[in-house]
Amino acid sequence: MDIKTSFDARFARIELDLVQKAREFASRHLDIPGPISISAHRLLLQDACRSGLAGIEVPANFGGASASFSTRMRVCEELALLHAGFAFSLVNHHNVVSRIAQSQDSEARRRLIEAMLDGSRIGCTAMTEPQSGSDFTAMRTEALPTQDGWILSGAKAWITNASLADVFLVYAQTDAAKGADGVAGFIVLADDIGFERGHPYSAAGIEGMGVGQFTLTKCAIPNDRLLYPPGEGFRAAMRGVNQARVHVAAMNAAMVEYALAVSLNYAGSRQAFGAPVIEFQGLGWSLANVATHLQAMRLLTYSAADAIDAREDAQSMAAMAKKYANDTTMQAISACMQAMGAQGITEDARLGRLLAWAKAFCYTDGTPEMMNERILRYMRKARRNGP
Q1: Whole-angstrom distance, CA of residue 166 vs CA of residue 360
Q2: What residues does the Acyl-CoA oxidase/dehydrogenase middle domain cover (predicted)?
């Protein structure tokens, strides 16, 4: 029994059904050889929502499945097997729905959740800014209190789904002197006065993610759209980042699985010097190394997912999973390309696109260097606390 099958064996029937739905959705819709337009991307997201893939962790009383984080991770992994960019986009939308559903109930929020579950409204999370990427507390987007709400001003950049979203979870600073304790989270709508969407980004590795930017100019937000009050915003964002790191690691594993399957198929059928090229030890061993790294990647990733479901402190485990995935995936896909010779760099092989996505995932939700810092911080803390 392989690691995926063993991991899935613990799932309840509804969770297994969601993983299977993701597998079937990917097979039907995501076998896409080239770039997709923003309009086609939105239609795909709507189709996925109608298939039930936007409410995995959303409570059943809101119309969701009340499934585990591990289920969400496995759904993401199955989608990434054929299109990692779309998988990243959908999970970003799901995260916003889930967070709104976990907040204080109201009729307005119920209507918003319903629209996001059926795909008529698409969501995104906005943390990164033009002047501050990984340094979250250095954000310049500010939120000033008024008698009946807040006024938001600032800019967000490199935001997944920003080029097509309708609902934005925006993090802003309410009091710079308080640092992290001043960060709050707000629901901003694309039709709010003062919201202006910028041009989508065009770069290798972000195809299918809807990556864009926007500005807020004295954008008035009522109090009932304050999702995380000052003091809660930063902690909520960091919990989300730990989960996102595990998603990224799972998507990397899916890409390596795909690359390995393509290269094994080629190397098993390509003849050279009277034998399949996989019989040549140098080439065969390189693919054996890829298979070993894939198993190790999944063990780290699934262990981190288990920790999140158990509500344990998963910061170091999520960092290790993402770091190992980032470090390994680039090398693994390159090895698979090398095993295919010139065929490995053709568009038909699709490995070049995987390599670009793998590089992009080195930047999302923290670079490998940042992961090293998180791991080192955990090691120092463990040393102080003793065995």
Answers
A1: 24
A2: 124-219
Both 262 and 201 in one domain: the answer is no
Give the CATH number for residue 355: 1.20.140.10
Tell me which residue of 140, 92, 35 sits closest to 244, measured CA to CA: 92
149 lies in the same domain as 252: no
Can you give the CATH number for the domain in which 71 is found?
1.10.540.10
Q: Is the pTM of this model over 0.85?
A: yes
Considering the domain architecture, whether residues 94 and 63 belong to the same structural domain is answered as: yes
CA distance between the termini of the chain: 35
The two tokens of residue 125 are 């999370």
Which residue among 186, 201, 231 closes a domain?
231
**Region of 137 on the Ramachandran plot (φ > 0 left; ψ -120 to 50 alpha; else beta):** alpha
CA distance 233 to 185: 5
Give the range of the structural domain holding residue 279, as residue numbers without chain letter.
234-385
Length of the chain: 387
Beta bridge partners of 228: 185
128 and 93 both lie in a single domain: no
Tally of domains in the chain: 3
CB atoms within 10 A of CB 366: 24
Q: pLDDT tier at 134 (50, 70, 90 boundaries)?
A: low
DSSP string, 320-339: HHHHHHHHHHHHHHHHHHHH
Phi and psi angles of residue 228, each rounded to the nearest 5 degrees, phi first? -125, 115
Shared domain for 108 and 251, answered yes or no, is no
d(CA 191, CA 196): 9
One domain, residues 130 and 181:
yes
359 shares a domain with 310: yes
b/e burial code for range 223-256 (CB count within 10 A of at least 16 → b): eebbbbebeebbebbeebbbbbbbbbbbbbbbbb
Do 155 and 218 lie in one domain? The reply is yes
pLDDT in tens, 270-327: 766 766 767 777 778 899 999 999 999 999 999 999 999 999 999 999 999 999 999 9
pLDDT confidence band for 360 (50 / 70 / 90): very high
Q: 108-113: which pairs have CB atoms within 8 A and are 24 or more residues apart?
A: 108/224, 109/224, 110/62, 112/167, 112/187, 113/58, 113/62, 113/63
C-alpha angle with apex 19: 13 to 25, nearest 5 degrees? 130
Distance CA 16, CA 21 (A): 9
